[in-house]
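Hey,
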Amino acid sequence: MERELYGREAIFGNDGLAARLTGLTPYGSVRVVYEHPADPPVAVLTGGRGMGKTAVLKQLRHLYREVTPVALVDCEAVLPPADPGPGWTPVTGALPQLAAQLTARVRAARPVQFPRLSLGLVAVASISWTREDETRAQRDLQSLGPLLATVDGRGDAATGWVTKVLTKLAASAFDSVAPMAGMVAEATVETVMEESFSRFQRRSADWYGRYPHAGGNGRVGLRQLAVDFERGGDLRRRAEDHLVLAMAEDLVRAYGGLSRGARRGRPVLLVDNAHVPLGRQLVGPLLRQRAAGTHDRIAVFATSRVRDHEGLAHAVRRRLPEVAHASHWSRGTGVTSGILAVELTPLDPEQVRSAFDRHDPRGRTQAGLARGVHRLTGGRPLAVELLALAAGQSPDAASLVPGALLDAVVEVREDRAPARVADELLARLLPGPAQRLDHLGVLAAAHGEDSARLLAENRLGRAAPDGDVALRMRDALRADGWPAGPGRFVADPLLRALLLHRLRFQDDDHHSHGVWQAVHVTLRGAYAPGGRLPDVPHLLHQKLVLGDAEACVAHLRLRFDEPDVLAWLGSLRFIVSAPYPRAPGSTGPDPRRAVALGRADHAPPQGLEPPAAELHTRLRRLLHGLWLLSDPLALPDEEVIDKMAHELRQLSGRHPTGNSDLWDAAKHWPRDIRAWRPLSMPPGGDDA
């Protein structure tokens, strides 16, 4: 899906972060002054799923790939080949990918060559070769073909090398079939240099003389590198670090000894999902080298889904708008102080409006839809883009509300079948097996860990014989960067709305909604007197979910005259936060609207005195009005807002002691709704 990036000017502006770190403007590639000419920070973009981290890296690659060497690797997508040899690890798998991209031709400069990295990777690839297994050697060398092509343009070079390497081994004292990493690596390196390296390129082997125990001899260093790699553990990590630095050294050399102006700016290394171990292995050696005073010319941009990752412990932290014109970064004493961690911020309402204008240039959607989408998504760019796309493709754009957009089917990409927006969002925000979504869909109805564990025992018990599924799902959410919060097991409003939407419509029988009913019936029983978690407001919340609004109105009526009006208002606010059990694909006026405006036929319970019956009717209108106005899948309605304020004013006049609090609610709650804020408590207070 082609993505327009909104709210990212701090990165892509002509004096933005990318320009200042690369020395080139993203658009037009005009030279700019480096903000940190000798010692640049590693810029790590932080934010949860759907915040646009990957989109930023892809845009950087797109903008710079013709003017400076640039490479992008997704650390979660580096997977072993079908038959990996002992020389394959995620690091040795990622480095050839990066080098192959970095060697692409750019304007006015020769392609970058990687002789040092080639020698190191060939050395470790050869650690298990024997004369009896020529096929393995052929396969390993051919897998390095794109990298080796940076120093030898002959496409079939690897085939000839294998024969020559094994011939060298046959002529040596190597008479055992067991792998001998050092000897094989030495024979391999000698053959590769003889066959493919120019006299000047052969000097690149000398760089490995700095490897531990090499004594300044590059060939000894390469042999020791292979031995360390084969031995594993910390020694393998040391060898992998040296391979990363070999790639950096090749890039540095590509910028030295050339005529002035032959290369502009800095090469760009883009590391997506750097919070996983591979990311730290790729970025860590550069950070340590820079902290030790050895500086390179590489602009490194990485991403981390985990904001509080231990690798960012000493990073300089900034929010995106703060780096628009200067990063205000300086190196501290720790190695990771070389990181500038930039938190990507959500889109603001105007930026969401721009996304809707792009996909709906004729303005067919109603005026409040973009703002409603901002409230639902919290400005998460991925969700904004998909919902705006759905609005633009909808034939009934004028009647859309956010909940209807979740049901919409959109064409995300030309090479993929159309997908339902809610399903596409969940697949992108919570990737993984369907069973995980089934579990979290059930647990999204929970208010906290206790109710989540109760639901897990009653609804998911058979699926988790090996442990507490609720706690495992909680840890999975935290590991994925989703926030924790009081009052909801799934704290993020968008994610919770998507999971509840899935819970509502996941079974085939949309008329009974069996799974939805069963989950909320379980919670209703738990919160009832005698249940495991007895609590009246939570019980009424569940009754409202299940359609029993009359029980909620009766409770509010019976408690209305009590002196603690703020507690009564707080209960009302909590009860109406219940998710509304929408019908699938529902369009037209929301049924709650007619009730809130007094246009639905209704008779109060029999036996009530006229004042109590009148109070019951008024509270019924108020409950449904607030339920509609608090629903993130609906849109505010001015007529309902005015009616809600009227009912609160009328109630303030008849309450024996609570005139002030009810009057304040009539005044401030409409302001909260029109400002797209949650209802404040106390009304007009800071709790919004």
